[in-house]
Amino acid sequence: MTTDQRAEVLIQALPYIKDYNGKIIVIKYGGNAMINADLKRAVMGDLLLLQLVGVKVVLVHGGGPEISDLLKKVGKKSEFIDGLRVTDGETAEIVQMVLAGKVGKSLVSLIQSIGGKAIGLCGMDGHMIEAVKMDEVHGYVGEITKVNTQPILDVLEMGYIPVISTVGCDNEGNAYNINADTAAAAIAAGLKAESLISMTDIRGILRDPADESTLIPKIAVSEAPQLIREGVISGGMIPKIECCIEAIRRGVHKVFILDGRVLHAILIECLTDQGMGTMFTN
To answer: What is the pTM of this model?
Structure first.
């Protein structure tokens, strides 16, 4: 890029920076963007840049592959029902150890290594994510009953990026495995976030799954049920989209489904006219 082109990019980003300044964006992070080292570093760089221009960034992460790897090492088989990991007591401890320990702390370390400030939290800290057992079939998979946003707001106020592991708890101290999409939507709603960005392994919602040129750039919440009936939204995307819809209905202004495999996808979506994923609005 020439110097003039670089300047033009910054000028184009200016109105978006102004719109987002002082507002909260929640990023749900997982998939290939979390496994690939180059993509991971790029995502953390995007978050840091947004923070430096005045956006309050909250990172909510999963860690399914890492959990499965450790379960395999200790001789436990991963079992899923309706897309959710069956979680007995021992598995719940491993989930807590992997998410709040290995994965969360590695993301905090990476943000700090590129010049940012981050603090790792899990849903058990300050009773941030309160939950009850969803059902007996899934074991210690939690259904969220309450989100206490004060610990997150405190960390934001101190100038840090909160890195949140999706482990919940109840009043008896039991730990629950919380689906990351569900947790991110509930946290975004509780924070009255401007946007929720869900990073996935697809480009967005495609009218024809085999043709990426059929990307649907914008979907109103009222249109989603029809797209599900038509099979445009199907399989594992249905619960993700239901979380997007729930976030919008609870006050989040915009929800984006982005392809986490694309470098700087967050910046392209937030700070350019181009955009690149599917946006849900009310």
So the answer is: 0.92
